[in-house]
Amino acid sequence: MGRLEQQLLSLTDRLSDIAKEERLLTEELSFHRSLADDAARDAAVYDDPIERENAAMTAGDVRRAERRLRKLADSRQKLETKRARLLDKLG
């Protein structure tokens, strides 16, 4: 197996890992959004400092998960571009 083939296999493995992580993170993000919605609603209804703090923390969890998901998408796009270039060289 040549160097290009090895690089392609490695990229394919990394893309597979990213896809798995994106799936898991998407599910986790859905959960965090649900918690954040509940916390925001509780903070509005009860007007309690602890509820407001909880709402801020859960909103932060959502932002962190969204940011991580964007980074994964960027990484995936870069790897797919690199993979396409390698396939062009190979073909």
Describe the structure concisely for a colleague.
This protein has 91 residues and is mostly helical.
Helix run count: 2
Biggest β-sheet description: none
Uncertain spans, ≥5 residues at pLDDT below 50?
none
Q: End-to-end span in angstroms?
A: 15 Å
State Rg: 20 Å
Structural class: mainly alpha
Brief descriptors of the model:
2 helices; rod-shaped; mainly alpha; 91 residues
Polypeptide structure, described:
The chain is mostly helical. It is built from two helices and no strands. The longest helix is centred in the N-terminal third of the chain and has 44 residues. The chain starts with a helix and ends with a helix.
List the helices and strands and how they pair.
Elements: H1 3-46, H2 49-90
Helix pairs in contact: 1-2
